[in-house]
């Protein structure tokens, strides 16, 4: 076992089953394309309850309607979800203002996920971290590697080049007190191709104090172990989990026994 993996084994490793909500339904988008949507039968609350019954402590909840249009819409659902399941919730989608953050936290969420705004206006998000505390904000960065090997951060549904490089922004947030970073390799999202472990090893070396969540590509329980050994403090479980490629209770047992 390398030194990085040994270090991570001394930290808690958390699994975040994910629920993406659009028009009140559980859905998955193919590569973020709103025109290529798969719907699933359980209601969001039914699915969250199933995850809680399987032993989950956390839920990663995405408001896809708000992610597209702005204005987070799931606050009433967050209240119901927390009261019904007892899950800790990290949630985002369309978070644009300090008031958005305050209202989502007031609804019972433990953490607010900030994505595109963190790329466009990092200083603003750093002020939120200072106001609400590092435990209350998760910065989510969706990255794509260009032909030169540089990791860049597209915005607007991955269609616009922000001109921002992943490494420089990660350093900026780490220096500014960020604790929780969720990073997605766009090319792996929803593709069941395995997480980009080399990217996570690199980021863990770049900013070892960050508690990084792997997102995109997890296929099986071995991928979860791989993310942990690559330096991550958690993994978001999306398509593979909802389609039954592995059981959540088995994944939780493996993650907690490592």
Question: What descriptors fit this protein?
Answer:
12 helices; 258 residues; disordered N terminus; single chain; TIM Barrel; alpha/beta; 8-stranded parallel β-barrel
Can you characterise this structure?
The active site is at 20 (proton acceptor), 142 (proton donor). One of its GO terms (cellular component) is cytoplasm. GO terms for molecular function: 1-(5-phosphoribosyl)-5-[(5-phosphoribosylamino)methylideneamino]imidazole-4-carboxamide isomerase activity. This is 1-(5-phosphoribosyl)-5-[(5-phosphoribosylamino)methylideneamino] imidazole-4-carboxamide isomerase. This protein has 258 residues and is α/β, with parallel strands linked by helices. Helices cover 40% and strands 28% of the residues. It is globular, with a radius of gyration of 17 Å. The chain has an eight-stranded parallel barrel with strand order 1-4-5-6-7-10-11-12, surrounded by six helices. It has twelve helices and twelve strands. Helix 2 packs parallel to helix 4 (75-85) and helix 10 (221-229) packs parallel to helix 12 (248-257). Mean pLDDT is 92; it is low at 1-10. It has one domain (15-257): TIM Barrel (Alpha-Beta Barrel). Helix 5 links the parallel strand 5 (88-92) and strand 6 (111-114).
């Amino acid at each position: 076992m390398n030194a990085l993996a040994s270090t991570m084994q001394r930290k808690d490793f958390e699994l975040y089953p994910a629920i993406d909500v659009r028009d009140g339904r559980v859905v998955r988008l193919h590569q973020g394309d709103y025109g290529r949507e798969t719907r699933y039968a359980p209601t969001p609350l039914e699915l969250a309850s199933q995850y809680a019954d399987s032993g989950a402590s956390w839920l990663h909840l995405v408001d896809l309607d708000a992610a597209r249009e702005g204005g987070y819409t799931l606050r009433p659902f967050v209240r119901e979800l927390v009261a019904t399941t007892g899950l800790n919730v990290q949630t985002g989608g369309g978070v644009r203002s300090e008031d958005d953050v305050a209202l989502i936290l007031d609804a019972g969420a433990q953490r607010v996920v900030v994505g595109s705004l963190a790329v466009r206006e990092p200083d603003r998000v750093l002020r939120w971290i200072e106001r609400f505390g590092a435990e209350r904000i998760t910065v989510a960065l969706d990255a794509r590697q260009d032909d030169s090997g540089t990791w860049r951060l597209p915005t607007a549904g991955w269609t616009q080049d922000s001109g921002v490089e992943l490494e420089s922004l990660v350093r900026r947030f780490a220096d500014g007190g960020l604790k929780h970073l969720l990073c997605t390799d766009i090319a792996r999202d929803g593709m069941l191709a395995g997480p980009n472990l080399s990217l996570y090893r690199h980021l863990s070396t770049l900013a070892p104090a960050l508690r990084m969540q792997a997102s995109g590509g997890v296929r099986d329980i071995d991928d979860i172990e791989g993310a942990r050994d690559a330096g991550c403090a958690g993994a978001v479980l999306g398509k593979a989990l909802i389609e039954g490629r592995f059981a959540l209770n088995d994944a939780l047992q493996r993650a907690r026994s490592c």
